Structure formats: structure tokens, C-alpha cells
Amino acid sequence: MLAVLPKRSADEVSGELFVAAYHRKLADRSNDAISFLADKAMERCQWFPTIAECLEILGDFRRSDDAIHRHLERRRRASEIASRERKARDDDASRVYALNNHTLTQEEVDAMPDFLVELGLSCKSLRRDDDGKVCPWFLKPGEEPEF
Question: What is the predicted pLDDT for the residue at 134?
């Protein structure tokens, strides 16, 4: 950028301080980021950019190396796993709601995981019939719930 963009003239000491200040603020950036900065500064700026302008330009930089692609893939997979877990919890919650409101069919009871069957038995939303089969708890007319 020094070769392309004009800057205020300076003596040797000022020039060294100038370079040291830019180095201190930009040295932690990758080569790709610095290359991006140089290209964009030459496109956008009429004069050599200040450090603040350099940092603003670097704000537009997006990495596109293998590490960032692996990171994005891991985030995508984590999001899928979280979505499946949320759906499973929502499904369980709707089964618990159905248990508590006695709206289950025998097919739904048969498809329940063991922990929900145990929950349903413990809260009297499911019962075991005379043959030991777990089924929805429906009160017969005139029957009082057991608590």
C-alpha cells in the first residue's frame, strides 16, 4: 500500500513509529486478512488508511480456509443434532400431555419408551390390565380415580 497510496511525508523516526504502530495493531491478522486489507484499501482509499480505517476494512474480511469450513460443518451438524433433540423432547412432552389428559390410544402406549410408560403408570395415566398389559387409563362410568 505504501507504494501505491500517498501518505503524509515523515522523517525517519516518524516513519519507524508509523510502521511500529501499524504492526502493533495488525500483526495478529493472518496473511489472507492483510492481503484482503491491502486490496480493499487500494480500491477504496485515496490516501494511506489510518489504523481505524484498516480495522474497519478488516471487519469485512471473512475467512475461507479449510479450518473455517470444518468449523461451519461442525456447527451445521450440531444444529441438526440440537433440532432432533428438541423434536424428541417436544414429542415426549406431547406424549406426557396426552398421558395426563387421557387421550392416548393403545397403539401410542405400545410405541412409548419405557421411561414414559413408568411415568404414566406412576401418575395413574396408564394402568396394567388383568393380563399385565399396559393400557390407557379410562375411568368407567361411576368409577372414582385412585390417588
Answer: 92
With cut-offs at 50, 70 and 90, classify the pLDDT of residue 58: very high
CA distance 42 to 1: 7
Helices (H), the chain: 12-26, 31-44, 51-58, 66-100, 106-110, 114-122
Strands 134-136 and 126-128: antiparallel
Using alpha carbons only, give the angle 39, 41, 46 rounded to the nearest 5 degrees. 130
Instruction: Give 25: exposed, middle or buried? Use CB within 10 Å, 0-12, 13-18, 19+.
Output: middle
Q: For cell 423432547, what's the residue?
A: 89
Residue located via cell numbers 398421558:
99
Location of C-alpha cell 396426552: 98
> What amino acid occupies position 60?
D
DSSP state letter for 133: -
Phi, psi dihedral angles at 135 (to 5 degrees) = -145, 165
Choose between 22 and 139: higher pLDDT: 22
Interatomic CA distance for residues 132 and 135, integer angstroms: 9
